[in-house]
Each structure stands twice: as structure tokens, then as C-alpha cells.
Write a structure and sequence with these properties.
Helices cover about 25% and strands about 35% of the residues. With about 150 residues, the protein is of the alpha+beta class.
Length: about 150
């Protein structure tokens, strides 16, 4: 499994970086002077980052899809006072190269503790038919395993 590397929130303010991210959006856009560039919105569990591909954007756009995890290398710059990545290399990762949990927000709290709190809240519902419905959902084994 590939090491995730640095999370987006921990990227330096400038300089070259290499890390893994999930592609949220990608779009070929026209340049003012003709041609096009690829605009990418990428993320991990810590944050999101805009990225641009200036060289060979059409071919690069075909090499991955939205929701793919990619390994990306580039230079962090600032545009309109926000960081953006100027991509020099990007490739789609195979599923065995990363831990999916690195790309989805997660709570710092214990899931069992939160599930217990949910049960307490359900027990506080005064409307009997509604409480029974909620209890059947919360107590369903397939639900509680998620």
C-alpha cells in the first residue's frame, strides 16, 4: 500500500510536493489566448485543493476520472490568495495503493460511543410509533455494523 504522504492541510505554502488525493471535479477550460487547461478540485480527509494542468491537458484529463484516487506531483503556488497546485505529474492509483479512510472525513470520537448516544436520543422520542420505527432501524444488525 502506498504511503498517503502529506495531507492537504499540512502541505507547505510553496514548493514542490507529492501526495495522494481523490479527484472531486475536473474540467477542461479555455485559455484566454487559445488552447485549454485542465482544472481539478482534489481532496483528502483534511481539506480540498484546486489544481491546474497546463501541459497536454486533454491527454491528462483522459487518464483519470472523478472519484479516482491519484498520485500527484506539482508546485504549490498562490492565486487570489489561495493555494493551488500546478501539476507536473499525475496518475490514477490502483485500489491496493491507498487506504480509502485517508480520503473521507471522519470524527475523532469513538464510533461505539456515538452509536450509544444515538440510542439514547432515539429513546427520548415521545411519539411511540416514531420511536419504534427509529429503534427498529438503530437495532437492525446490518445498520449497527456500519
Amino acid at each position: 500500500m502506498e504511503n498517503k504522504g502529506v495531507f492537504i492541510n499540512d502541505l507547505p505554502q510553496s514548493g514542490e510536493v507529492t501526495f495522494l488525493a481523490v479527484v472531486i471535479e475536473k474540467e477542461l477550460r479555455p485559455k484566454r489566448n487559445g488552447g485549454s487547461f485542465l482544472s481539478i478540485r482534489m481532496a483528502d480527509r483534511s481539506s480540498e485543493l484546486d489544481a491546474k494542468v497546463w501541459d497536454n491537458p486533454e491527454a491528462v484529463a483522459q487518464s483519470f476520472d472523478c472519484n479516482d484516487v491519484v498520485k500527484v506531483r506539482g508546485i504549490i503556488e498562490h492565486y487570489n490568495e489561495k493555494p493551488q497546485l500546478i501539476v507536473s505529474r499525475i496518475r490514477r492509483c490502483d485500489a491496493n495503493e491507498y487506504n480509502a479512510a485517508d480520503f473521507y472525513p471522519a470524527s475523532n470520537r469513538d464510533p461505539e460511543e456515538m452509536f450509544g448516544e444515538l440510542g439514547t436520543f432515539v429513546g427520548m422520542v415521545r411519539n411511540e410509533p416514531l420511536r419504534q420505527l427509529l429503534e427498529s432501524i438503530v437495532n437492525d444488525e446490518s445498520t449497527s455494523q456500519r
